[in-house]
Amino acid sequence: MFARRDGHQEGITLAAEHRPRPALSITIAGVFLLAGLALAVLLLPGKLDKQQAYDSAPRCPTAQPAPGCRSQTPVTLTAKERREKGKNRPYLLLISRDGGPSQWVQMDSGDSHPVYDTAQPGDTLTATYWDNLIVDVTFHGRHENSTHEPNSGFQGFLFLTTLLLVAGAITTVIAARHLAGRTLMKPDIKPLAAMGVGTGLLAGGLLVTAVLTGALNALLTR
Fold first, then answer.
1. Mean pLDDT over each residue of the chain, to the nearest integer
2. Which domain holds residue 137?
3. Parallel, antiparallel or unpaired: strands 71-82 and 91-96
């Protein structure tokens, strides 16, 4: 008799743990969707405008930087270093133009830093100036972007925006099931099977995000 009572109690507990929670799932879906839409609506247009302005800017008639155009300007590498910045150690070049004051330029993050690794203090580099900022440098055919290059980080930003929207779509489906009184998985599903479903959803979501990011990036930057 006690065994039956324990089993009955266990069933009640299991059902309670797996009961639909529409309020929670709607809240999570709303957070994902609002965050994704905020990035898409508030920040994406500005990034696109800046990128298009840079891509369409003509080359300056001289090597001197000027508003509204891109110049190829000889500069001198004064120093280079890597600094501690949180968990990162950004690559920095100290650059001087025409003997004027030097300025630190942070290189774009990535696995390859051909100019930083090759050029030495005293070497002459060719810097691309746009909007009074150094967007890239070249040294003996080696090219490296700075963090001022408008395309820098754009795909990462687009991936994050798309990921939030995809997560919002998935959690919206879950919320709809909860509102209908159903759960995403059966209460008696085995833990290993539940893990497999979760892993499949995660992998599928990332795959869809990557495909959509690539398509959107090609569409927006063409």
1. 80
2. 60-145
3. antiparallel
| Nearest CA-CA partner of 171 in 44, 27, 60, 39 | 27
d(CA 82, CA 74): 23
Among the three residues 103, 119, 145, which one is the final residue of a domain in this structure?
145
Residue with tokens 């990035």: 39
| Beta carbons within 10 angstroms of residue 82's beta carbon | 13
- Residue 204 domain-assigned (yes or no): yes
Q: Please indicate, yes or no, whether residues 110 and 178 belong to a single structural domain of this protein.
A: no
Name the pTM for this structure. Answer: 0.61
Residues 77 and 131 in one domain: yes
| 165, 189: one domain | yes
Same domain, 88 and 133: yes
* Most confident listed range (82-86, 154-158, 167-171): 167-171
